[in-house]
């Protein structure tokens, strides 16, 4: 029976796709992918491009990144309806999403519109912070340790609780929130224990070990994450 | 130059290995793997077995699971020395570890004994809880949400803070700690929001949605994880 497949592409390096993700891309009839903000190829599409059969039909669709919820919902509804029709017509349809589909992905909004109506399957991917800690070769957690993942847009209260309670704290989507995050890390004396990584596993990956000298007004990549290693030497 | 490669196998399904992990297994000269506790094949080895060249030399080594730190350290030293000699002699050596190498893996102890002496590379893997949320198709985090990962052996205080502060809480290595965890979830009224998964992505995977009726004295698999979804209907 035809199905809808959500596929996590991993963080950037094409080889960090799973074997299952690769096999799925080779068998589907049609692939949906988020349209890039600027002209050019979508990042998710670049990652999987080595595995796509030449004949695969690719449909880029625009997901508005705006504050207006109804504008976003309209787009999700339209794209979900389009996918629904294709799967009902017997096509196996894929959708690619950066990192892991269950971690901060717009894919969730498509899935909740589809899963009651057609068969769906979701294939995990490597999260950017996971790839980062492997590239650094500094363990996220050992033995009795704990870690937490917070978006930089979370409240100061939540970020402070995370920094106080957990061995390792991952702060995602840093971007324009860098001044706030730098202030919170400074207050806790954690700047020297923090690593900033932009564009993890990509060709233009950038790693800053220790954030004491980082200019917080610097414009950093949209794909920037901080790992705070409270219990390691970095 | 010869290298030491740590490879995350993912949670259990062979197809959840990364393409990079697969390619590395195909090119190394020798593979080290933890010896199973009982006789039979190691789980990590079963996961990667579809990709291993017939001629690949496989060395199972015993990692003692005991409280005596010096016994464990002796074993890590011996295995690290053996690997060191092989890499120095020009062999590319691999080591496989369940899930992701940077998340609760004994691999960390080998790596810290090797990384100053030889070239090392670590290849990420899908963590069991990540595979679980994808199998359930229930997002771990959306938008401003947060999640945390704690071992069931952590203090009640840490687990309670996690349950109070984060949208989603992943409790790993539940096993014999089930009575304690069930009590903490009950106190917070979170039993109905919790999912227990044993042997994620394996053939004998077992999923219990909502833990109100779970007998906490039941013997559960060593590979059991609870996801507490505070903000989702499960």
Automatic annotation (TrEMBL), chains A, B:
Coiled-coil segments on the chain, per record: none
Keywords: Cobalamin biosynthesis, Methyltransferase, S-adenosyl-L-methionine, Transferase
The EC number(s) this enzyme carries: 2.1.1.151
Domain Tetrapyrrole methylase: 3-210
Pathway: Cofactor biosynthesis; adenosylcobalamin biosynthesis
Source species, domain of life: Bacteria
GO molecular function list: cobalt-factor II C20-methyltransferase activity; precorrin-2 C20-methyltransferase activity
GO biological process assignments: cobalamin biosynthetic process; methylation
One of the Pfam families matching this protein, by short name: TP_methylase
Protein family per UniProt: Belongs to the precorrin methyltransferase family.
Name of the protein this chain belongs to: Cobalt-factor II C(20)-methyltransferase
Organism, as annotated: Vagococcus carniphilus
Lineage of the organism: Bacteria, Bacillati, Bacillota, Bacilli, Lactobacillales
């Amino acid at each position: 029976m035809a199905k809808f497949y959500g596929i996590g592409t991993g963080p950037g390096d094409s080889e960090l796709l799973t074997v299952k993700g690769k096999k799925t891309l080779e068998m589907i009839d049609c692939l949906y992918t988020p349209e890039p903000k600027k002209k050019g190829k979508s990042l998710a599409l670049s990652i999987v491009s080595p595995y796509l059969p030449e004949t695969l039909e690719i449909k880029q669709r625009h997901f508005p990144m705006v504050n207006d919820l109804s504008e976003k919902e309209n787009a999700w509804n339209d794209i979900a309806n389009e996918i629904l029709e294709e799967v009902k017509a017997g096509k196996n349809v894929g959708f690619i999403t950066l990192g892991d589909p269950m971690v901060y992905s717009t894919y969730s909004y498509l899935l909740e519109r589809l899963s009651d109506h057609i068969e769906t399957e979701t294939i995990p991917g490597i999260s950017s912070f996971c790839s980062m800690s492997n590239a650094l070769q500094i363990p996220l957690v050992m033995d009795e340790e704990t870690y937490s993942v917070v978006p930089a847009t979370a409240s100061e209260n939540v970020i402070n609780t995370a920094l106080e309670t957990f061995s390792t704290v991952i702060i995602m989507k840093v971007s324009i929130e860098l001044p706030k995050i730098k202030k919170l890390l400074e207050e806790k004396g954690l700047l020297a224990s923090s690593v900033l990584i932009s564009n993890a596993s990509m060709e233009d990956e950038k790693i800053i070990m220790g954030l004491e000298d980082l200019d917080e007004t610097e414009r950093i990549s949209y794909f920037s994450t901080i790992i705070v290693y409270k219990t390691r030497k970095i």
